[in-house]
Specification:
The chain is of the alpha+beta class. The protein has 3 helices and 3 strands; from the N terminus they run βααββα. The protein has one domain. It has a 3-stranded antiparallel sheet with strand order 1-3-2. Strand 2 and strand 3 form a beta hairpin. The longest helix is centred in the C-terminal third of the chain and has 17 residues, at 43-59. It is globular.
Length: 60
């Protein structure tokens, strides 16, 4: 079973982006989940956001 929520370090590895770009992209697309002071990122929502970006780019 694959993880659904990941921390920042795993987000960077998953997206192959730098810290600032990966975190800002995830927050802009509603993928960030706050549990106390901890921030986790929902990979299901992130995959949907990436798919939507790809579709927008393909229609240009």
């Amino acid at each position: 079973m694959a993880k659904r929520l990941v921390d920042t370090k795993e987000l960077l590895s998953y997206t192959s982006l730098g810290k600032n770009k990966a975190v800002s992209f995830a927050k802009e697309h509603g993928c960030a989940i706050y549990i106390g002071r901890r921030v986790l990122f929902d990979l299901n929502k992130l995959d949907e956001a990436i798919d939507n970006v790809q579709k927008k780019e393909a229609t240009k």
